[in-house]
Write a structure and sequence with these properties.
Elements: H1 3-11, H2 18-29, H3 35-48, H4 52-63, E1 79-83, H5 92-101, E2 106-110, H6 120-124, H7 136-146, E3 148-152, H8 159-169, H9 177-190, E4 195-202, H10 211-227, E5 231-238, E6 246-247, H11 249-260, H12 266-282, H13 289-301, H14 304-315, H15 321-324, E7 334-339, E8 344-349, H16 351-363, E9 377-380, E10 387-388, E11 393-399, H17 405-414, E12 415-418, E13 428-432
Parallel strand pairs: 1-4, 2-3, 4-5
Antiparallel strand pairs: 5-13, 6-9, 7-11, 8-10, 8-12, 9-11
Helix pairs in contact: 1-3, 2-4, 4-9, 4-10, 5-12, 5-14, 9-10, 12-13, 16-17
């Protein structure tokens, strides 16, 4: 078997066999296939695509390129949740405790933020003392005892994915649905869960900007999951504006806790209940969607989900006094209002620009080695369909510097305000099973 023949085969739009895909991954990892040949194959895939079977085989051999997590010592049906990334996405802090309170184990490995999307691990570290590194024994013990643990990504999970992604990043082949789908699913499958719920974002703040592309990606990942014997459901959710009203690390923890306390942050609560409902259905706890949403809402209203969050934080050395008094979370030195320069109704928000603004404040990273400032961020006061008068506060910047003119302008330009009344955005566009 020769790599040049496989490149030509895919270039001509033909299907690669399982043996051929295995050959590519194994030999690339053994460094007997050079970068320039794999780059050529990735470009051929970019233009010619892969069918669902090819994508499943690619995912399988990326999983097998490294370690897989054995969760068999955890009692019960393990369900994982993954988001494709967005702005203000703090659903893990609501969904995890909710599902745990329903009795389902959630053993989750999460990443750090890069660019305009925030990282779950960075947000958890805004809680004083919180440990994101646990031994495997501690991780399993916490999940068995409290039904929830979240740690940073460890071990050698899907190393082929890391190497392929680095190559795609410098060869303009990132935006290929088969390659995106196999990248995401290889890490999720290697993480050991029995079932997977995917939150596929669509819109201005998402990786996939159009509903059509988001649906293709969701369908591709659900198919991969099923072919690799993982029950998988994908929710397509809106990211044409940030989720909730808070962006930033401590800010987002604070807002998630408020939802667990019963505050109705509408879009955030709706999405969290949607994701949690499908997780509980996959685990066989509730028979149908309506029953799941009803019971999960009850777990918020009676405080059991909040208690599950406190148990989780305390078990990972976090200071739960900040959960009981949210003012003790890290905060910024200055709080600067961003004023509206027009009046009417908010028609559009560039969610990506809002995320970039938060990153420039220090809430995110432009480069992997940038340090995070847990106290800075943005509070939104106006979202799509809200009425705005000239001079109204659109957002508040929480910042440790009093020179923020460029960021203020970035936020102002992220809003499109028009005279006509407009409806609120749809939160859930589709469910792919």
């Amino acid at each position: 078997m020769r790599m040049v023949d496989l490149i030509a085969k895919k270039r001509n739009g033909m299907k690669l066999s399982e043996a051929e895909i295995k050959f590519v991954i194994e030999n690339y990892m053994a460094e007997t296939i050079p970068d320039y040949q794999l780059s050529a194959l990735m470009m051929a895939v970019y233009f010619q695509g892969m069918d669902q079977e090819e994508t499943a085989f690619l995912t399988k051999y990326m999983v097998e390129s490294g370690d897989t997590i054995d969760l068999s010592a955890i009692n019960g049906h393990k369900v994982d949740k993954h988001s494709t990334g967005g702005v203000g996405d703090k659903t893990t802090f609501i969904v995890g405790p909710l599902v745990a309170a329903a009795g389902i184990p959630v053993a989750k490995m999460s990443g750090r933020g890069l660019g305009h999307t925030g990282g779950t691990i960075d947000k958890l570290e805004s809680i004083p003392g919180f440990k994101v590194e646990l031994t495997n024994e501690q991780f399993i013990e916490n999940v068995n005892k409290y039904k929830l643990a979240v740690v940073g990504q460890t071990g050698n999970l899907a190393p082929a994915d890391k190497q392929l992604y680095a190559l795609r990043d410098v060869t303009a082949t990132v935006n290929s649905i088969p390659l995106i789908a196999s990248s995401i699913m290889s890490k999720k499958i290697a993480s050991g869960a029995d079932s997977i719920v995917l939150d596929v974002k669509t819109g201005s703040g998402a990786f996939m900007k159009t509903l059509e592309d988001s649906r293709k990606l969701a369908e591709e990942m659900v198919t991969i999951g099923k072919q690799l014997k993982r029950n998988t459901v994908a929710i397509i959710s809106d990211m044409n504006q940030p989720l909730g009203y808070e962006i930033g690390n401590a800010n987002e923890v604070k807002e998630a806790v408020k939802v667990l306390q019963g505050e109705n942050v509408e879009d955030l609560r709706v999405l969290a209940l949607e994701l949690a409902a499908h997780m509980t259905i996959l685990a066989g706890i509730y028979p149908d969607y309506d029953k799941a949403v009803h019971e999960l809402s009850r777990l918020i209203d009676n405080g059991e989900a909040l208690q599950a969050f406190k148990n989780f934080v305390e078990a990972q050395n976090g200071d739960i006094s900040v959960i009981e008094n949210l003012d003790k979370l890290p905060s910024a030195a200055y709080h600067i209002s961003v004023k509206a320069e027009a009046e009417g109704y908010v028609h559009e928000m560039d969610a990506e620009s809002v995320g970039i603004a938060a990153m420039h404040l220090g809430a995110g990273r432009a480069r992997k080695d940038d340090k995070i400032n847990h106290g800075v961020g943005i509070t939104l006061h106006k979202k799509i369909a809200d009425i705005v008068k000239e001079g109204d506060t659109l957002a508040t910047l929480h910042t440790d510097t009093n020179s923020n003119d460029d960021i203020i302008k970035l936020i102002q330009n992220a809003y499109t305000i028009k005279e006509q009344v407009i409806q609120k955005n749809t939160m859930i566009y589709d469910v792919i099973k």
